[in-house]
Specification:
CATH architecture of the largest domain: 3-Layer(aba) Sandwich
Number of strands: 8
Distance between the termini: 87 Å
CATH superfamily of the largest domain: Alpha/Beta hydrolase fold, catalytic domain
Order of helices and strands: HHHEEEHEHEHHEHHHEHEH
Number of helices: 12
Radius of gyration: 22 Å
Structural class: alpha/beta
Strand order of the largest sheet: 1-2-4-3-5-6-7-8
CATH class of the largest domain: Alpha Beta
Number of domains: 2
CATH topology of the largest domain: Rossmann fold
Strand content: 15-25%
Oligomer: single chain
Largest sheet: 8 strands, mixed
Helix content: 40-55%
Length: about 350
């Protein structure tokens, strides 16, 4: 064997050894801590890519936005944005929006377009940031959302278009899970006792929920037959709960909203895509809501219609996103008509 072939063999063996080392190292890393996977999500998984709709320019002319308002909190990322119609001087039905990102990433800034085109239709939209896992663990985001609510409540003069007696709470992805649980706390005494946290928002003031693409049955997702989904959920749950094998933990039961619904839950709009999505969870939650006599407006698309990914509703280059926007506005009109 000549010198060149021997060198090539050494290079190939070296590359193979490096690949094996990287694979083994990665496997070891994700079994020691959730931080490597959290780091991967933050750096290589961009999440949804919002696309500005054609109606944005016209509507944005009629909306004012006050951004990066700091609210008192024991946690970091304690800022919120407020969007409202420019000509509004009195309180309007108000949407508190909680961003997604697997409890690990995300930021309110990504929702400015959506908040603008909703506010232009006669609503105040409050986008809330909160400190992320694994820097903090459950139930820190729930506590922090309560702090944001208390700040908004205490600053009625500064925020004259906010109306907390006509409150809609919403979110997307992990934010939808947080929103769904925050709402459930206000009408489920058993959940409040389990979480050992006080109710903050009067149940009668929450007139609706908007839940986009959320996770509502975490314990079932832990045992998903899809190994990639199972790995993903177990890793992000580990980062969020601070417990590696969290399936049977009290925290997982509390956070599985399908187990926490009562007849006191408000009317709900719910949607999800059909590809790389949590559609099964959305349908489970819808069924549980209806079993409890709660009004639900839902929007799903069969796979035959065409593939729609998780968080499809912010891609305004596709007609389904516009339909979701229109359906959301129709839902808001319905629930605010008598209030």
């Amino acid at each position: 064997m000549g010198r060149v072939p021997r060198i090539m063999i050494k290079i190939i063996l070296g590359v193979v050894a490096l690949v094996v080392l990287l694979v083994v190292g990665s496997i070891v890393a994700v079994n020691v801590s959730p931080r490597p996977f959290a780091w991967y999500l933050l750096n290589y998984d961009s999440g949804f890519s919002p696309v500005t709709p054609g109606i944005y320019h016209e509507l944005s002319q009629n909306v004012r936005a006050e951004k990066d308002i700091e609210y008192p909190s024991r946690f970091k990322n304690n800022q919120l944005d407020v969007f409202s119609p420019k000509d509004a001087t009195s309180p309007l039905p108000t949407i508190l929006w909680i961003h997604g990102g697997a409890w690990i990433g995300g930021d309110k800034a990504a929702y400015a377009t959506w908040a603008t085109i909703v506010a232009a239709r006669g609503y105040t939209v409050v986008l809330i940031n909160y400190e992320l896992a694994p820097q903090v663990h459950y139930p820190s985001p729930i506590i922090q959302l309560g702090e944001a609510y208390q700040f908004v409540k205490a600053n009625a003069q500064r925020l004259p278009t906010v109306e907390l007696h006509r409150l809609i709470i919403g979110g997307d992805s992990a934010g939808a899970q947080l929103a769904s649980q925050l709402i459930a706390m206000q009408s489920n005494p058993g959940l409040v006792k389990s979480m050992q946290l006080p109710t903050i928002i009067p149940e009668k003031d929450i007139i609706g929920a908007i839940l986009y693409c959320g996770l509502y049955d975490l314990r079932s997702l832990y045992d998903s037959e899809n190994w990639l989904e199972r790995f993903y959920v177990r890793q992000v749950g580990w980062a969020y709960f601070g417990i590696r094998h969290w399936r049977d933990a009290r925290q997982a039961l509390d956070a599985s909203t399908v187990e926490q619904i009562t007849p006191g839950y408000p009317p709900t709009f719910i949607t999800e895509g059909n590809t790389r999505s949590f559609e099964t969870d959305s349908r489970k939650l819808e069924a549980k809501l209806k079993q409890n006599g709660v009004y639900v407006d839902s929007l799903y698309y069969p796979v035959e219609h065409g593939k729609l990914n998780h968080e499809y509703q912010f891609d305004f280059s596709i007609p389904e996103s516009i339909e979701c926007y229109d359906r959301t506005l129709a839902f808001l009109t319905k629930i605010t008509a008598s209030r």
